[in-house]
Amino acid sequence: MRLIRIINVVHYDHRKQRFASLAFKNSTGGGISVISQECILEQGRTVCHHIKTFYPPPTSSEPAIFWALEENSLPTGYRLEQQPSTSSDICHYNIEGVADKSARALMIRCQLHEFQICENGTSHTLTTEDLIS
What we know:
The protein is an alpha+beta fold and 133 residues long. The chain has one domain. It is built from four helices and nine strands; from the N terminus they run ββββααβββαββα. The strands form two sheets. The chain has a seven-stranded antiparallel beta sheet with strand order 6-7-4-1-5-8-9. A two-stranded antiparallel sheet has the order 2-3. A hairpin with a 2-residue loop joins β8 and β9. The longest helix has 10 residues. The model has no long low-confidence stretch (mean pLDDT 94).
């Protein structure tokens, strides 16, 4: 399964030129929040439209940034648990059983070109120019 993780621009470290580990860690009392891309497509939406509908700012940035990762990239021992979000998103899942240290290792290895940014309802590869405020 392809998973979508919403990444807020506030977690971008300009000095290190990468997103901080806070962008991909367990929430208090829960796992790591993701969305099933297959589910989004089954609903007839684009990822960007889905984020805008269910995860407006301050959950997402404006424009929204996301990371699409393959389930098989997760560390051994994880579990995916479907749990509708507080915004009633049926495509929402929690990744359980991944230690913050393992999640951090995944995030800090990511290169900028692995992220997407929404623009006019579609997305394109995130660039440093997109991050200049």
